[in-house]
Records
---
Amino acid sequence: MKVAVAGTGYVGLVTGVCLAENGNEVTCVDIDENKIARMEQGISPIYEPGLEELMHKNKERLHYTTDYQSAYEDADVIFIGVGTPEKKDGSANLTYVYRVVEQIAETVRKDCVVVVKSTVPIGTNDKVENLLKNNLKHPVNISVASNPEFLAQGTAIRDTLHASRIVLGVEDKLAEDTLRTVYAGFKDVPLLITNRKSAEMIKYASNDFLALKISYINEIANLCEIVGANIDDVAKGMGYDARIGDRFLHAGIGYGGSCFPKDTKALNWLASYNDAELKTIKAAIEINEQQKLKLLKKSRKYYPDFTGLTVAVLGLTFKPGTDDLREAPSLVNIPIILEDNAKVKAWDPVGQENFRRKFPDDITYCDSIAETLKDADICFIFTEWPEVRALTPEDFLTSMKKPIVLDGRNCLDYESFHSSDVIYESIGR
Ligand code: UGA
């Protein structure tokens, strides 16, 4: 099939590359000339393990362009994979989606299926269909389908090629048949056909459920601290129950990233807009905001403020395996630490350059963990990079002025740290 993909972020590019891997002829469209030029040279604009290798492997079937006209006019299928960032009121900003829709309407010259892959509020696909039909320049038949994505950053290729499910929200046979052909290569992946609104809801309900699960375990972790239980054991004990499952029960300083924070707020907004209330999601959002400050609260018993102290920070990104800083706990905590006039030293294996762009002057960026810890009065762990997980009490004891370690990801071995001379605190243990 001849496929065009609008947007070359995580959703668009990974989708395009994986569809090419399964035999489709794919053109990726973006407005950013610089990005397109880099992709033509085989360089991925996002940090995603395995992506460049797959771009290279499928280079005969993958094309990149800023010229949307040439990409859309004779495509069988056009995927929309542009961002839907959060607006100030918590709702999803659909400007980029609708801009692509207008471009498609003015361009297409043959019957095709337009597939919304971006995460969009329930009912958006209907609006996309109306917008297309009202603005078509040429007499063609267009079907609109919803096909949400479930990939996570860092495992995006595996999550797409071996997806947990492919959800196709369709209202007509053309859309269903065309998408079945596009996805024919994804043999071992369950396919669920629904109507468009259900498909749109599946995406939000899935992400918000995972966010809720994290906020739930974080709240239980906070209670574990008070009553003397250990959240690691509690989560393990819960996880054996297949009805609960053992994933996304890892307590810490809260979820970040470009999806959970945005999608919980967007669904909450949609509910209140329709005079409904999502009490569970509201609670998940509130708990997460408080959780992000949990380490800082713990630190206050050691230092009421950080004036004149050296603070070491390990990990800046919202999770390991990505250079993405969006909604990362580091972004909430570091400005508060800086306001105290602390000297902040930070390390992150891939997120450092992005962080430097936001905070160019106030932070000393270090090349190694040892350099970061040297002479520090306290250490905050915000991301569980493998290099951080591998640290032993000795690493902190030999470098820090005062070995106070606050582990926001429960990534260090509790027993060895607790029995060492390190003053060690984590979440719910
Ligand atoms: C998430 C979902 O996992 C994907 O299924 C979804 O497709 C994607 O959003 C999206 O909508 O695009 P992602 O944001 O890449 O993927 O990251 P996750 O691995 O889900 O982690 C999100 C946050 O939750 C991270 O900050 C992570 O540290 C935190 N988390 C995760 C926990 O605190 N505890 C856990 O047990 C799991």
Note: The longest strand covers residues 2-6.
---
Amino acid sequence: MGSPDIAILGTGSYAPVNVLTNEDLSKQVDTSHEWIFTRTGICERRIAGEDETTSFMAAAAARAAMADAGVTAADIDLIIVATVTPDMPMPATACFVQNLIGAPSRAACFDINAACSGFLYALDTAWAMLGSGRYRHALVIGAEKLSSAVNWKDRTTCVLFGDGAGAVVLGPARGSAQVLGVRLYAEGSHANLLCIPGGGSRVPDPSSSPEGPQRVIAMKGREIFKIAVREMEQAAREILAEHDLMPDQISCVIPHQANLRIIHALAEYLELPRDRLFVNVERYGNTSAASIPLALDEARRSGRIKPGELTLMLAFGAGLTYGSALVRW
Ligand code: UT7
């Protein structure tokens, strides 16, 4: 367990203005709005411009979260960025964010790669570090520029992903709001179902073997679909049991926004009315580590989450990682 007196003090998000619709995509690859919408629920996604780097989007989301929390960069002593599309292999994108927002040098900064579950992994890490008493205010950020990692000729993947960022400030609880629990899991035996096979130390220069693994997303979508529903259901049931809660006691469930059919199947398995789910996949597609914090920020700002209520966040992603987090507002 993390510390009981740590809460999400504020949320923020950033989405590039450039919109890529299903219609636009159907002019680039052999697909259609009808196929994409009925199979995924996605209508459009945001695509970052050249200057909208992962750190730029992360910093914009972080500034919004700090304003919402009523803290300044000087208060931040921990920055964790969850991403699979860092600005560079090194240094950590979190260091670029620190510089962009003007956080002090005593802030610890690092990245986490747990793909679409990355935000929950970062949340749990920050929660534990704050719980140690050695850090006071953390920025926990999910940010992705997936447009840089997509094979724009592969219709089976390029229609799914988008760019964006979401952030929260974690700090000493004020009132009854608190992080109640986080559970993290991984099934490394499925690591090859979703990966960027080239560009790492196994194949550092994919261009030298054009037929070999490339530095773009490769995915076995149908297999992941089935596992994702089972994993998120398990993560939900275990955290609810740990807190003696039934699914219908959760007023807002924020699942990873990958595919509306996955989200609806999850609701069915958990016997949750669909109106308990917050969904924005139709406007952003799958933004990996940014998906949950982006949705969380939209849910809060739209009044979908109210003080005293419980929110359950559920993630799955490459690894295959998965997890759940329960917070009270
Ligand atoms: O954050 C985690 C990220 N990953 C996921 O969430 C992936 C989870 N999986 C999924 O969301 C779904 O499996 C997909 C959306 C990726 C695919 O949907 P599906 O219903 O599982 O379709 P499928 O892969 O079984 O493909 C059905 C057909 C195939 O044609 P044939 O073999 O039946 O002739 C595909 O070639 O649809 C074809 N297809 C397309 N057609 C038009 C695949 N992509 C497209 C496309 N447009 N974009």
Note: The first strand starts at residue 6 and ends at 14.
